[in-house]
Specification:
The complex is a heterodimer of chains A (355) and B (281). Chain A has 13 helices and two strands. With 355 residues, chain A is an all-alpha fold. Chain A has one domain: Orthogonal Bundle (ABC transporter involved in vitamin B12 uptake, BtuC). In chain A, helix 1 packs across helix 2, helix 1 packs parallel to helix 12 and helix 8 runs antiparallel to helix 10. Chain B has 281 residues and is α/β, with parallel strands linked by helices. Chain B has a domain of 42 residues. Chain B is built from eleven helices and twelve strands. The longest helix of chain B is centred in the middle third of the chain and has 16 residues. The radius of gyration of chain B is 20 Å and the shape is globular. Classes of the chains: A mainly alpha (355), B alpha/beta (281). At the A-B interface, helix 8 and helix 9 of A face helix 2, strand 6 and helix 3 of B.
């Protein structure tokens, strides 16, 4: 897939560093907005006052609002930001690895595996587990399912010590289908109550956010977040092609294994925590490349920040649009992301035709 | 500079490369020639360290290739493959800048910028710097890739570097072919070893200090073009009869297929299978 635009996006004015700062500000703003949004509206100034109170810069707002912010909205908003960052970053890494702007972690079976694990827990596992282990059992099942399926895909795609990208894609399709079949079989066996749980899990939600889930997700995402700067060189070289990258001294096989494992760990945890949230992983890197080009030193952090700005906004919208009920966040990202993506596709097609 | 011994590569039970020895000196241009499937690209990949042979060893500067670390090797040798497309849109100068990746942490930002500019000047692509790579013609793209490869070796002593070209000119028109080979010749003149796989015998005869003619993975002939690219050697490799046509002005020669009339003139020669059926009474 080669270039389709005659002049490359390289807006004058602010540098990439400046643009990253701007995106970080955007993400922070989205977070503050999300913290103030819900059944009880709190203006941004109030949110800031409350957030800065513990370090003594301001005095706390009244008790009820403070409690709502700290116990309900902070874990939830932070989880949404973390999930958005991980999904955006992982999308960018997978697209770079596959040299394809349509790739996302789902290709490797992360989502299908997580769904299988979660549905298995809901239908079969919960009854078997002791009471104390039940609250996080679905998430644990989803995480395990994501890891198992992706490792199987990697294993099958490996041939003579090399992971072939095309084989990885094909193996991903096979295991996606198999995991999907397993999930369907479990759903077939489920009772009405379980079906409801499954349905809600599938559509994704940040409502279950607790400090424990937030910390567990962060722990699984941390390796990817820390390693991302070290992936940029290899991913940039891969833009040229696998052969070119290896003659530039990039250890391609290590890059593939490392990137896929880091992404699986992080996305597996995110899907386990918030369910299936589509399109962020594709839309965020696309936006990043539209803004400042394909250099991964820019695309990776920008995708993470765009994701971290998008998801808290989507989550806030999910909370208020049909209040007092709550929309599934996955529904919103698909509803907004779908048309956006369609516009991108059509524009790209016109750009090709217009040459 | 590069020495190889007993190289053997086997694929699917078939020996696709079997070369007892090869040596390339500093400042030398070696061109590997042979028909499709002769093992030219395999040999180039083995010599450049991209592929491990099943048997045999290659040394760069007296050190086994497999003892070189990938990053270290990338600061001594560069490979220009056939024209390729990018995974994502990039400007030409961004592509050239990727050639500096192996130097991260080994070279200053100013040196990198100098290297990129120098490489683009040598490859004659400064005017294309801000153009999208995908909007360039095949020949321009390949010259940008050449600049990328030059940027990789820029700032190093020319005599320490090896440049590999894997059919770099196959899809290019005459001026672009010559532009690319002229640049590599000048690098060789400055001491760089150049190893190229080419398809065009005349082009090879023009640019090579030495040619290696292979067929079915084995050496057919090796030496200076004048003595190596003889009709007999070429026929042995390509199973096709050619004639040499000498250029009255330059002392160079061209290799042209024998025409049917010429072949008919010597009908009955069993070495010319493709003409035999037409060579009846």
């Amino acid at each position: 897939m080669s270039a389709t635009t005659a002049t490359l996006p390289r807006a004058p004015g602010i540098s990439r560093g400046g643009a990253l700062l701007l995106l970080a500000g955007l993400a922070a703003g989205a977070g503050i907005m999300a913290l103030g949004t819900g059944a009880m509206r709190i203006p941004p100034a109030g949110v800031l006052r409350e957030l800065l109170a513990p370090i003594g810069l301001t005095t706390a707002v009244d008790g009820a609002e403070g409690a709502i912010i700290w116990t309900l909205r902070v874990p939830r908003t932070l989880l949404a930001m973390l999930a958005g960052a991980v999904l955006g970053l992982s999308g960018a890494v997978m697209q770079g690895l596959f040299r394809n702007p349509l790739a996302d972690p789902g290709l490797l079976g992360v989502s299908a595996g997580a769904a299988l694990g979660a549905v298995f827990m809901i239908v079969m596992g919960l009854a078997l587990l002791p009471e104390a282990m039940r609250p996080h059992a679905t998430a644990a099942g989803a995480f395990a399912g994501a890891l198992v399926v992706t490792l199987l895909v990697l294993r099958v795609a490996q041939h003579e010590g090399r992971v072939l990208i095309a084989s990885m894609l094909l193996a991903g399709i096979v295991f996606n289908a198999l995991a999907g079949a397993g999930t369907s079989a479990l759903i077939f066996a489920a009772n009405d109550l379980q079906l409801r749980d499954i349905l809600f899990w599938t559509m994704g939600s940040c409502a279950a956010a607790t400090p424990a889930i937030l910390v567990a997700t962060l722990a699984a995402a941390l390796p990817l977040l820390i390693a991302a700067p070290f992936l940029t060189r290899g991913l940039n070289a891969l833009i040229l092609g696998e052969r070119e990258a290896s003659t530039l001294g990039i250890p391609i096989e290590r890059l593939k294994w490392g990137a896929v494992l880091l992404v699986t760990l992080a996305v597996g945890a995110v899907v386990a925590a918030v369910g299936m949230i589509g399109f962020v992983g594709i839309v965020a890197p696309h936006l990043a490349r539209l803004l400042r080009g394909a250099d991964h030193r820019w695309v990776l952090p920008a995708s993470a920040l765009i994701g971290a700005a998008l998801l808290p906004l989507a989550d806030a919208a999910a909370r208020v649009l049909v209040a007092p009920a709550e929309l599934p966040i996955g529904l919103l990202t698909a509803l907004l992301g779908g048309p956006f993506f369609l516009i991108l596709l059509l524009r790209q097609r016109f750009a090709v035709d217009g040459r | 500079m590069i020495t190889a011994h007993g190289l053997i590569v086997t694929r699917g039970g078939r020996r696709i490369l079997d070369l007892p020895s090869l040596e390339v000196a500093r400042g030398e241009v070696l061109v590997i020639l042979g028909p499709n499937g002769a093992g030219k690209s395999t040999l180039l990949r083995v010599l450049s360290g991209e592929m491990r042979p099943d048997a045999g060893e290659t040394w760069l500067d007296g050190r086994k290739l497999r003892d070189w670390r990938a990053g270290e090797l990338a600061r001594r040798r560069a490979v220009l493959p056939q024209a390729s497309s990018l995974g994502f849109p990039m400007a030409a100068e961004e592509v050239v800048a990727l050639g500096r990746l192996p130097h991260a942490g080994h070279s200053s930002r100013a040196a990198d910028i100098r290297a990129i500019e120098g490489a683009m000047r040598q490859a004659g692509v400064q005017a294309l710097a801000r153009r999208g790579y995908g909007t360039l013609s095949g020949g321009e793209q390949q010259r940008v890739q050449l600049a990328r490869v030059l940027a990789q070796l820029e700032g190093l002593p020319r005599g320490d570097c090896v440049l590999f070209l894997d059919e770099p000119t196959s899809a290019l028109d005459l001026p672009h072919q010559h532009a690319i080979l002229a640049v590599t010749s000048s690098l060789a003149a400055a001491g760089m070893a150049v190893i190229a796989v080419l398809h065009d015998l005349a082009l090879a005869a023009h640019f090579a200090d030495r040619v290696l003619l292979i067929a079915d993975g084995c050496r057919v002939a090796e030496g200076v073009p004048e003595e190596t690219l003889t009709p007999d050697h070429v026929e042995q490799a390509y199973r096709m009869r050619i004639r040499r046509v000498h250029d009255a002005q330059g002392g160079r020669f061209l290799l042209v297929p024998e025409t049917k009339a010429q072949a008919d003139g010597s009908a009955g020669d069993p070495r010319r299978p493709q003409y035999r059926e037409h060579a009846g009474p």
